[in-house]
């Protein structure tokens, strides 16, 4: 776990799914629940459903469509948001994420949520986990028309909120997004060691990783 130089950080940019929220809900939805519903609606086996969905997933991974519930509802011919409601009880905070949020807000840092989640998905989660009070802004990449993987997202964010990349901390569980932020000049970057509580720790490659949010508060 790194010791952060808090005196050099004014703005804290935080991802939502897998960073503040347990990724188990999303993994269960996309890997289990959605293929099962697709199989039922088309009268095919679960294995066949996965074979049909896989090329679609691969085609749109990392694009704004990948994160857009409207896109998937049109593509699959059923309401993806309504399907998500069926297992919304799985939406949960990662351990001590709220303690971390409260502490950095009280310390006077700008705290801004930046997520690729569609606004419908964001609102669904905010109905079940009280995150909004901790943040100055809740920004969906759909607001800008570019996912966080795209350099144009970061330009739009800078124009919108006026942050200094050199004096910002960004935490995200997706390595390609962290690399995009690094290329833009964000100075302090952290990955997440175990985004999904039901799966083991993972290799975060060149990035230091969050394992315990309380440990990040040292020196705040």
Automatic annotation (TrEMBL):
<dbReference type="GO" id="GO:0008253">
    <property type="term" value="F:5'-nucleotidase activity"/>
</dbReference>
<dbReference type="GO" id="GO:0046872">
    <property type="term" value="F:metal ion binding"/>
</dbReference>
<protein>
    <submittedName>
        <fullName>GMP/IMP nucleotidase</fullName>
        <ecNumber>3.1.3.5</ecNumber>
    </submittedName>
</protein>
<dbReference type="InterPro" id="IPR036412">
    <property type="entry name" value="HAD-like_sf"/>
</dbReference>
<dbReference type="InterPro" id="IPR050155">
    <property type="entry name" value="HAD-like_hydrolase_sf"/>
</dbReference>
<dbReference type="GO" id="GO:0005829">
    <property type="term" value="C:cytosol"/>
</dbReference>
<dbReference type="Pfam" id="PF00702">
    <property type="entry name" value="Hydrolase"/>
</dbReference>
<dbReference type="GO" id="GO:0006281">
    <property type="term" value="P:DNA repair"/>
</dbReference>
<dbReference type="GO" id="GO:0008967">
    <property type="term" value="F:phosphoglycolate phosphatase activity"/>
</dbReference>
<dbReference type="InterPro" id="IPR023214">
    <property type="entry name" value="HAD_sf"/>
</dbReference>
<dbReference type="InterPro" id="IPR006439">
    <property type="entry name" value="HAD-SF_hydro_IA"/>
</dbReference>
<keyword id="KW-0378">Hydrolase</keyword>
<keyword id="KW-0479">Metal-binding</keyword>
């Amino acid at each position: 776990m790194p010791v952060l130089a808090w005196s050099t950080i004014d703005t804290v940019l935080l991802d939502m799914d897998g960073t503040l929220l347990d990724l188990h809900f999303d993994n269960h939805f996309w890997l289990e629940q959605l293929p099962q519903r697709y199989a039922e609606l088309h009268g095919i086996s679960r294995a066949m459903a996965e074979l049909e969905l896989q090329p679609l997933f691969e085609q749109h991974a990392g694009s704004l469509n990948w994160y857009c519930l409207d896109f998937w509802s049109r593509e699959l011919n059923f309401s993806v948001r309504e399907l998500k409601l069926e297992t919304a009880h799985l939406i949960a905070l990662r351990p001590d994420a709220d303690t971390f949020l409260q502490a950095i807000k009280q310390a006077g840092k700008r705290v801004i949520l930046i997520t690729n989640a569609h606004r419908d998905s964001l609102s669904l989660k905010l109905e079940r986990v009280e995150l909004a009070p901790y943040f100055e802004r809740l920004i969906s990449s759909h607001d800008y028309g570019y996912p966080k993987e795209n350099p144009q997202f970061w330009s739009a964010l800078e124009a919108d909120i006026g942050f200094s990349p050199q004096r910002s901390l960004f935490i995200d569980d997706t390595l390609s997004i962290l690399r995009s932020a690094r290329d833009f000049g964000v100075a302090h970057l952290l990955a997440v060691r175990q985004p999904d509580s039901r799966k083991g720790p993972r290799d975060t490659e060149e990035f230091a990783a969050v394992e315990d949010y309380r440990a990040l508060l040292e020196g705040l």
